[in-house]
What does this fold into?
Amino acid sequence: MQALKDRIIREGKNLGGGILKVDGFINHQVDPALMDNCGREFARRFKGVGATKVLTAEISGIAPAVTTAFHMGLPVVYARKTKPITMPDQVYLTLSPSHTKGRMVELIVSPEYLAGGERVLIIDDFLASGATILGLVRLAQAAGAVIVGIGTLIEKTFEGGRQALAHLGVPIESLARIQAMEGDQIIFEDD
Amino acid sequence: MQALKDRIIREGKNLGGGILKVDGFINHQVDPALMDNCGREFARRFKGVGATKVLTAEISGIAPAVTTAFHMGLPVVYARKTKPITMPDQVYLTLSPSHTKGRMVELIVSPEYLAGGERVLIIDDFLASGATILGLVRLAQAAGAVIVGIGTLIEKTFEGGRQALAHLGVPIESLARIQAMEGDQIIFEDD
It folds into this structure.
């Protein structure tokens, strides 16, 4: 999606070690108009998959997942990383390595909001190694739900996430695919 | 706002101890159409305050803050509870008691996205004791920004948050004001 790529070129910063800083419009400060556009684009790309629910992980997935769900007319569930007191004792829980925290984090979904037979579209901010998304896949599968698609704002194709998710056999859509970051240069893959 | 009150009556659960469970449409599963409506309503109520930025706290404030910011044409910043590696070393940080975690949590904002002279509208899911919102106020004031309004989806008027924020002298708007929860009954204050 050109508007997102333009923004990454204008404001994204390569911090080295494969880390792309986009916290001026996605991860800390959010541009809601851009997120709305991204949500509209995901809704267009996943129109035919028959999704019944959007699933994401807190925190940075929430904004694009909410706008996508809005444009698809679906509810959205965000997996929690700590179990709030409002959640029942029996939950779906999996462990996932956190890139930014350097340790395993929990991903938790209540069975109240993810049921057998649901058709789940996963939306997240980044596709890097695919570890977080695989965690969401495990949660959905534990609930007896079916994954019907995966959408991310930014894919770092050099981290292999797409390959790690290929066995699912579902469409994987990223709105900006980065194949390399060298110094100040961010190089996109052709769509 | 009647649509929010209706939803609370239909799906909200009083868990006792002042805890209202609304995680079927706000805190875990999110109804994006309802959040869009709430954002539109906040935009209407705060049209005249001259806000330049919306500020919230992760996690549950993000959805209503993003939709409010969208309808006001403003950027939104969510205070982080852990400092990501993309954030500079010098940050605004304050401590705030967490109701659901039973301990103090950090609220962190990067000086990159909150500057002196900004006119900040705070949006959050709940107004209870006001402690989280007072934390956001301290962050904004540390940055030299001015608070111009506070909006929350649900206010529990019996927890005194409105009184704790009164000294700020800014409009405080809540879309559903609950004055008591008794057994299965949730009693709203008249608007």
Q: What stands out?
A: The CA atoms of residues 48 and 148 of chain B lie 10 Å apart. The interface with chain A takes residues 15, 19, 21-25, 27-33, 35-36, 58-59, 62-63, 66-67, 69-70, 73-78, 80, 82, 84-87, 100-101, 109-110, 112-113 of chain B (CB under 8 Å). Helices of chain B lie at 2-11, 32-45, 62-72, 131-142, 161-165.
